[in-house]
Protein backbone atom coordinates (compact mmCIF):
# COMPACT_ATOMS: atom_id res chain seq x y z
CA UNK A 1 0.00 0.00 0.00
CA UNK A 2 1.14 3.50 -0.68
CA UNK A 3 -0.20 5.14 2.45
CA UNK A 4 -2.16 7.71 0.48
CA UNK A 5 -5.60 6.77 1.76
CA UNK A 6 -5.00 7.78 5.41
CA UNK A 7 -5.34 11.42 6.44
CA UNK A 8 -2.35 12.27 8.61
CA UNK A 9 -3.60 14.34 11.53
CA UNK A 10 -1.28 15.89 14.09
CA UNK A 11 -1.91 12.87 16.31
CA UNK A 12 -1.04 10.45 13.50
CA UNK A 13 2.17 12.37 12.83
CA UNK A 14 3.05 12.23 16.54
CA UNK A 15 2.56 8.47 16.41
CA UNK A 16 4.85 8.22 13.38
CA UNK A 17 7.50 10.30 15.15
CA UNK A 18 7.30 7.97 18.18
CA UNK A 19 7.78 4.97 15.90
CA UNK A 20 10.73 6.70 14.21
CA UNK A 21 12.26 7.36 17.63
CA UNK A 22 11.97 3.62 18.42
CA UNK A 23 9.60 4.30 21.32
CA UNK A 24 6.75 2.18 19.95
CA UNK A 25 5.71 -1.46 19.91
CA UNK A 26 2.89 -3.21 18.09
CA UNK A 27 0.79 -6.16 19.14
CA UNK A 28 0.94 -9.31 17.04
CA UNK A 29 -2.58 -9.35 15.60
CA UNK A 30 -4.52 -8.66 12.41
CA UNK A 31 -5.53 -5.24 13.84
CA UNK A 32 -2.29 -4.37 15.65
CA UNK A 33 -2.47 -2.12 18.68
CA UNK A 34 0.22 0.48 19.20
CA UNK A 35 2.07 1.02 22.48
CA UNK A 36 4.26 4.07 23.05
CA UNK A 37 6.71 4.13 25.95
CA UNK A 38 5.04 0.93 27.19
CA UNK A 39 1.53 2.39 27.37
CA UNK A 40 -1.38 1.65 25.06
CA UNK A 41 -1.85 4.46 22.57
CA UNK A 42 -4.96 6.55 23.26
CA UNK A 43 -6.18 6.38 19.64
CA UNK A 44 -6.08 2.79 18.45
CA UNK A 45 -8.32 3.59 15.47
CA UNK A 46 -5.59 5.85 14.10
CA UNK A 47 -2.95 3.24 14.94
CA UNK A 48 -4.92 0.64 12.99
CA UNK A 49 -5.33 3.07 10.07
CA UNK A 50 -1.57 3.73 10.02
CA UNK A 51 -0.89 0.00 9.89
CA UNK A 52 -3.56 -0.68 7.23
CA UNK A 53 -2.44 2.38 5.26
CA UNK A 54 1.10 1.09 5.07
CA UNK A 55 2.83 3.70 7.24
CA UNK A 56 3.93 1.37 10.07
CA UNK A 57 4.57 -2.36 10.36
CA UNK A 58 5.75 -4.85 12.94
CA UNK A 59 9.53 -5.05 13.11
CA UNK A 60 11.74 -7.98 13.92
CA UNK A 61 11.41 -9.17 17.47
CA UNK A 62 14.60 -9.07 19.51
CA UNK A 63 12.98 -10.38 22.69
CA UNK A 64 10.27 -12.69 23.93
CA UNK A 65 7.41 -11.53 21.70
CA UNK A 66 5.55 -14.75 22.45
CA UNK A 67 5.33 -13.69 26.11
CA UNK A 68 4.35 -10.05 25.65
CA UNK A 69 2.63 -10.36 22.27
CA UNK A 70 4.42 -7.18 21.18
CA UNK A 71 7.20 -6.46 18.73
CA UNK A 72 8.98 -3.21 17.92
CA UNK A 73 7.07 -1.03 15.46
CA UNK A 74 8.89 0.39 12.46
CA UNK A 75 8.15 2.88 9.71
CA UNK A 76 7.62 1.79 6.15
CA UNK A 77 8.85 3.84 3.19
CA UNK A 78 5.51 5.68 3.20
CA UNK A 79 5.91 6.49 6.90
CA UNK A 80 9.45 7.76 6.38
CA UNK A 81 8.27 9.89 3.45
CA UNK A 82 5.44 11.39 5.53
CA UNK A 83 7.90 12.40 8.24
CA UNK A 84 10.33 13.80 5.68
CA UNK A 85 7.61 15.95 4.09
CA UNK A 86 6.53 17.45 7.41
CA UNK A 87 10.14 18.00 8.48
CA UNK A 88 10.77 19.94 5.28
CA UNK A 89 7.68 22.09 5.68
Strand content: 15-25%
Order of helices and strands: HEEEHEHEH
Helix content: 40-55%
Biggest β-sheet description: 5 strands, antiparallel
Structural class: alpha+beta
Give an overview in words.
- By secondary structure, this protein is an alpha+beta fold.
- It has helices at residues 10-20, 44-52, 65-68, 77-88; strands at residues 24-27, 34-36, 39-40, 56-58, 70-75.
- It has a five-stranded antiparallel β-sheet.
- Strand 1 and strand 2 (34-36) form a beta hairpin.
- The protein is globular.
Draw up the topology in text.
Elements: H1 10-20, E1 24-27, E2 34-36, E3 39-40, H2 44-52, E4 56-58, H3 65-68, E5 70-75, H4 77-88
Main traits of this protein?
89 residues; alpha+beta; 5-stranded antiparallel β-sheet; globular
Concise structural overview:
Helices cover 40% and strands 20% of the residues. By secondary structure, the protein is of the alpha+beta class.
Amino acid sequence: MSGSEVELSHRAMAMLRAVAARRAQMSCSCEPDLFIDGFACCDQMTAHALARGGYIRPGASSGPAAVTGRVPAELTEAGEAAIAVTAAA
